[in-house]
């Protein structure tokens, strides 16, 4: 995929990861401070207990880190399409601009690995995931996006829309295929939604399809514009999933606070940051500006980059809402405990 795309500017490629890291650090410090105010060391022990409960997920993340780190360290191109002699110079330029990941496609490869861990957790903790904000509409939109992505990869030539670099090729294709049955399981309750919610889902899908047709890239060969439409559609369906996740988090509050729910709230912002950064940095243009030679119709770069940033905002806001709702429940439980203990103390 990078063989036909440009490289990011040096300044922008260094500023965005730093800003995202600072944002994540600031959010983590704020959450820690709020938890400390609420219950001191007891909440610290509670958090350690939840980390022990998340041992399978943490092991999965560690395994992904080892696999990805090993592949990146070897500096090999594992894409399905070999780098041709005429593209060798362009490939070297891309590797120079991405000295660690080798190519921007590695961001999407890492995103697919994180998504697999998340969906495996949803299958492992089916009872918790079925009442979490991820179930129903978000999982259904992710399922549609996965189906569109598999269709895109199956119809595309090997040098178009398939990931290049160390985490591309067969590994990425296998991960994308495995997400489909997991998302079928995660979205199994969607048919039980009321007519109003199903109508809203249908309206969102139609809007995403219309916007994808009007705003597409020009990466596919002439006559295969439907591939560019599918690429845009995948991104917009994932944006609908982010919006639905935010709405469900606000509506459910602390009603679903199991291990999977906590894990999803923590992992989804990181996962989406990878996709948003890819859209911002992989094309060689400034953020929210069109790379005209790669535009097939409309303003695909502005649309996909803006929705990618908005998705990160939805997930981060969902995390804050979730933590705040858990904090309110804990404060209420502490107040109830104090009310229960005080009469006993007076009697003694």
Q: What would your notes on this structure say?
A:
The chain is an all-alpha fold and 348 residues long. The chain has one domain. It is built from 12 helices and 2 strands. It has helices spanning 10-39, 41-53, 55-74, 88-97, 105-124, 126-130, 137-155, 169-186, 195-214, 225-252, 259-281, 300-347; strands spanning 216-217, 295-297. Helix 5 runs parallel beside helix 8 and helix 5 (105-124) packs antiparallel against helix 11. The longest helix has 48 residues, at 300-347. Mean pLDDT is 83; it is low at 3-18, 35-45 and 344-348.
Strand composition percent: under 5%
- What's the number of structural domains? 1
Helicity level, as a percent range?
A: over 70%
Note the gap between the termini. Answer: 75 Å
Instruction: State the shape.
Output: globular
Please count the helical segments.
12
Number of extended strands: 2
What order do the strands of the largest sheet run in, or round the barrel if closed?
1-2
Major beta sheet, specifics?
2 strands, antiparallel
Mean pLDDT: 83
Please render the helix and strand layout as text.
Elements: H1 10-39, H2 41-53, H3 55-74, H4 88-97, H5 105-124, H6 126-130, H7 137-155, H8 169-186, H9 195-214, E1 216-217, H10 225-252, H11 259-281, E2 295-297, H12 300-347
Antiparallel strand pairs: 1-2
Helix pairs in contact: 1-2, 1-12, 3-5, 5-8, 5-11, 7-8, 7-10, 9-10, 10-12, 11-12
């Amino acid at each position: 995929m990078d063989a036909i795309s440009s490289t990011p500017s040096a300044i922008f490629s260094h500023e965005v990861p730093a800003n995202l890291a600072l944002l994540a650090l600031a959010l983590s410090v704020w959450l820690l401070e709020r938890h400390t105010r609420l219950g001191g060391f007891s909440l610290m022990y509670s958090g350690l207990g939840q980390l022990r409960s998340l041992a399978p997920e943490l092991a999965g993340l560690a395994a992904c880190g080892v696999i990805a780190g090993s592949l990146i360290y070897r500096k090999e191109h594992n894409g399905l399409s070999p780098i041709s002699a005429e593209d060798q110079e362009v490939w070297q330029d891309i590797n120079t601009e991405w000295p660690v990941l080798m190519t921007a496609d590695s961001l999407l490869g890492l995103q697919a690995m994180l998504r697999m861990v998340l969906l495996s957790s949803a299958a492992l903790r089916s009872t918790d995931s079925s009442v979490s904000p991820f179930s129903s509409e978000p999982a259904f939109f992710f399922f549609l996006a996965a189906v569109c992505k598999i269709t895109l990869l199956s119809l595309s030539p090997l040098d178009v829309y398939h990931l290049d670099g160390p985490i591309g090729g067969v590994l990425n294709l296998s991960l994308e295929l495995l997400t489909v049955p997991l998302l079928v399981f995660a979205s199994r309750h969607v048919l039980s939604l009321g007519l109003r919610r199903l109508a809203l889902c249908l309206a969102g899908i139609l809007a995403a399809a219309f916007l994808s047709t009007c705003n597409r890239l020009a990466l596919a060969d002439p006559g295969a514009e439907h591939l560019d439409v599918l690429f845009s559609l995948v991104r917009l369906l994932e944006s609908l999933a982010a919006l639905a996740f935010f709405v469900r988090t606000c509506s459910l509050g602390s009603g679903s606070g199991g291990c999977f729910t906590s894990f999803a709230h923590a992992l989804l912002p990181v996962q989406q940051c990878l996709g948003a950064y890819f859209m911002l940095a992989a094309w060689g243009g400034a953020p929210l500006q069109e790379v005209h030679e790669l535009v097939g119709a409309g303003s695909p770069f502005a649309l996909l980059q803006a929705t990618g940033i908005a998705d990160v905002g939805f997930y981060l806001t969902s995390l804050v809402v979730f933590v705040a709702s858990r904090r309110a429940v804990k404060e209420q439980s502490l107040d109830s405990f104090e009310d229960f203990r005080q009469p006993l103390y007076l009697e003694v």
